[in-house]
Amino acid sequence: MSLIGQHLLASGAPSLSSPHQTSSPASPAANGGFSCLCINALPIALDDRPYSLHNSHPLAATVGHRCPPSAADDFISESVTVASLGEAEKEMVMRRISSHSRASKSNSLSQLDVSVPALERFRPEVAHPAVELLEPWDTEFLSKGLQALPALPVADASCSVLQNEEVHKSKPRRVFINNPLRTNDRGDLVGNKVRTSKYTWLTFLPKNLFEQFRRVAYIYFLAIVILNQIPQLAVFGRTASLFPLLFVLVVTAIKDGYEDWGRHRSDVIENNRLAQVFTQGEFRPKKWKQIEVGEVVKVDANTPVPCDMVLLGTSDPTGVAYIQTLNLDGESNLKTRYARQETQVKQPDIHPLSGCVVCEPPTRNIYEFTAFLELDSGKFSLGPSNVILRGCELKNTAWIVGVVVYAGKDTKVMKNSAGAQSKRSKLESRMNSATMWLAFFLLLICLVGGLGMGIWVGKHQKILNVLPYYGKTDISTGEDVEFYNVVGEAVFAFLSFVIMFQVMIPISLYISMELVRLGQSSFMSRDKEMYCSGSDTRFECRALNINEDLGQIKYIFSDKTGTLTQNKMEFYTASIDGVNYVDGVKDFSSSDSSLDQIRRSGGAGPMPEQLVKVDLKLLHLLQSGVESLEKKVVQDFFLVLAVCNTVVPIKVEEETSLAFDNSGTDQSPGKSIFIDYQAESPDEQALVTAAASYGYVLLERSSMHVLVGVQGVVQRYDLLGFHEFDSVRKRMSVVVRCPDRSIKVFMKGADTTVLDLVTKHTLFTATSAAERHSANVFTSTVSHLDEYAKTGLRTLVIAFKDLSEADYYEWESQFSNASTALGNNRVVLLRKVAESLERDLILLGATGVEDKLQDGVPETIAALRAAGMKVWVLTGDKQETAISIGFACNLLTHDMEQIIINANTASACRDAIFRAKEGIQNLKAISVQRCNGKHFESPQSSPLSSTAMLSTASTTHLHADGGKLQEPNGLHGENSPPLALIIDGNSLLHALAKDMEQELFELATACQAVICCRVAPSQKSNIVSLVKDKAQEMTLAIGDGANDVPMLQKAHVGIGLSGQEGRQAVMSSDFSMGQFRFLSKLLLVHGHWNYQRLSYMVLYNFYRNAVFVMMLFWFILQTAFSASSAIFDWNLMFYSLIYTSVPTVVVGIFDKDISQKTLLENPPLYGAGQRDENYNSLLFWITMLDTLWQSLVLFYVPLYTYQVSTIDIWSIGSLWTVAVVILVNLHLAMDVQHWTWITHLAIWGSIASTFGCLFILDSITVESFLPHYRVIHKMIRTFGYWYDIVLIVILALLPRFFVKVVVQRVWPCDIQIAREVETMNNVKGSDLNHPHAEFG
Question: Which tens digit of pLDDT belongs to each residue from 1081-1104?
Fold first, then answer.
């Protein structure tokens, strides 16, 4: 498929029904143009997302500026002059020229170029529908040349203060075109070299060490190493003591360096790309990293843009360029940019071009750009439509030329390159508290050792000189050995014990956890069942440090559009003139003959490749030759759908075996030409496609006009003005001049606003047939809207009115004055002008667009709720639509009692919440009475019926304890109805206030399901924060759009979906995937496994190191509290790093307590993670008690068996080393629940490697190794050696084995029951389809 970069119908003379032709300069900003606003690509928030228009927006510009005409414009106006116009037309043109002249004289530079359709300029606001739009800041740059230029509005409230400060602190940037030396005369501008890598060759070592030592444990181990270098405290060999810390530091540094090396290579490739830079009168290749601000750069088609550039010219004579911002914001649809005509006609390689671009300092906001151009003694405004950012790719345009305004790290894409905020897992946080307990215990036993040493020295001070191994005089030299008195000896002993027992804090645990998480992430990413073939998206782990949190989620916060639904809108039904057309899927016809009819209706122009199914009755009405009032209304209805939008039609050519000719009748092999509608909003795309399916084909759009194929005849509609959609107005309107020279206002918007603006009549007040018909249409349309909302359709109301010339001139004058106002006044004035225009409308009908649920959503939500998770839906949609989707996806059920809160004031919201809580208390009392055998009222007469609409899912039961709602286990009777809370954004605005948030929290958490409607992005984040802070439970947020980013970052776990709204959510998430249905597999299976594995691994590491330390502690009690050790220094170091580390990692990656099938079939098993069954304080202390017993067995069994022998200290130390390694590995083997060959290799190989290392160490003849020479060789030949090992293992593990058997037989948990059933079925050779056990 190839995209043809030209306007539709530009190659031939279209049949035009418009007699009005004007001469238009081929410039997007030519003076004296029509007073029009470009609506080429203005995204209308049909999905109820609020948008706002700031001063820097091109559509907020002086009405005298013009957008580029298409090739069709040139064809139409080729030889027409203003003189050929009628008197009315001349007057209109002169009025517009006059208004432009006034605006130019005022140098109102906040009025941006209207020449640009700007798909990307509108962005969701964090404002609530009940709140006024964020007004442009009434601030000005501190430069004389920018006194009228307002500060840049930012994309979200979170960074507004930062950017506002940037504007005030920095002076505006002056960029002299093609003069980089003058531009950077102060040398304060950065070059275009970028670096996304974290390190350089010089900074790697210090920066990496600094980052690693931010872990407090590393500082602890560093202190231990330093202490061990002091001769008096050198318990271990100085070299050996360095090994553990160096090993951890080196391994981590290698991992960090490897990750950063990939970024470094990407930087090298990026910086050494070649671009065409204008130098010495021609464009010459130059490396990207050498490009400077002020240079003129040429970019060819399908080539990335090297820096942020103001567009000076394009290959299109109109100055238009098409770009793709996939690498910038993840959106794949084409966007348009425009060069001003003042620069378009002055290409640097043809005509000399000198001027100055005065722009704001670099900011992060990719959707805004505020600047002006000084050229030929004039000033011309520049906006987002005139700038192309680094990371964009040029499409459908042969070349563009621009001047560099931001380079390198000043570019907007680099300003936004910061990663997601760091999160910490719940397990790791709880692990820190256990570490503190271990540290306290370590200090305690060191203190015991130190005090013991002091007491012992004090008692034996008189005979110290004659004691073996402790004499004050060196026998060989006769010199006195330094003695530090009793206190000094106690202090040195204490510090020596700290060094000796350092392994109590497991340094290897940190590396082990990283390796386990890496392995778990690999398994999740390679899971074929979580691969989305439709979007070719695999599961992606973007944060490796919170894998285990996936197994402990209690609250799930989900977006609706694009998350639960597909965000692929399909025109489903329409109410036109009170008639419900396409009333259900059954009326659709998908036969080839019907499609042929539609194609024939397209006439002279191409058609969209994908058409909606049509209602044949409606299609025949439109194609009939009989004129009627009914047909006229239907024609106006579809005309509004085709014209009142911001969709950009692009011609697409592809090779096919059959192709339609212009008549739509003949077919021949060759190329087919289709229209591809580019729209940010899927709703608009669906409506425009629906209009095309009924013969109203949008063929071309410019800022001046649209061309529509109406039943085979191309008609031109001149665009005279436009009021954009925003979150307050919730509607858009466009003023057009029709082919018959009449002026009309077309409008579409939400029913809550448009229905109030239409002319209303009632059957009781109607005095004529027309008024009675109008009353019937209004009543029927309202009824149809309710039906659509209840079936989950997204609705819009369509209306229009005729506008007289006098009314138009009056509105045009008011609009011109309002659009040139500065500061906060502009939005207020524009709203007032819109209100004066948008009244007394004629209601045409309404549309119903279906946003289908994604596959598997109902089943997934049912499974998640069965697992004990509460699902909250946070959406910007209207309440009725959200409730309907709630039923469709099993979030709401008909046995639920709905608590609906819609309040516009704080007092009303407070009263509604208190009434709902009181009703729940009464409901609880009724449930208790019923449990006691008393009468239970029906739901219709329940205490909530006054504040709730009945019907809606689970089994959460409520009671009051101290005036606070809680969730007991089964207080309610089984017939008590579950609860659902539905609350809108207006109510949340008050409910989230400090004095009400606790009441809202108690009410919401008492309900099984919660739906928040009409919420803004900031409110989504506030709701998540409320539950996260007050419930102290694990939260997960999932969404697919940029408006979901705040809640994704606020929740403990954020999951982004790769959907229709770009990749902003993915880029800000911790995990990403393609479909909502994968959430059940992710949480119930991988989440459970991750939590179970890591929880056990943490406990096991604490046990493994503590048992070793306690064995050493018992030894000092037998050696006069001496810091000497029977275990070789290198064995002390290798114990955690080599002898026992590999099995821990392998089991942490591969072990699983229960199969995937059982976990999916029994969602309540997930509750083990929610209840912290695998890691809690009780388990920790039980493990420590077990550790105490095993350490006693380890030490005293060899001590007593070799009590009467000639064995030396190093021989018994060798026995202890081997025994403890075998013991901890068999301890691990006892707990392994899923054996694989890798597990066998790791455990038994670890024991074998221990023997191997001992043989090697005991064979070294270096002086420091001689005391251990061939110790292991002699010991393994004795019977007592092996006897002790076997005895130690049996005695140490016997209590643990006994307790495990008793607990599993007498007090089994859900997991143990499920595992036993699974094992029994496996033994029988049958699959586990429905375990005959209940898990709860």
Answer: 999 999 999 999 999 999 999 999
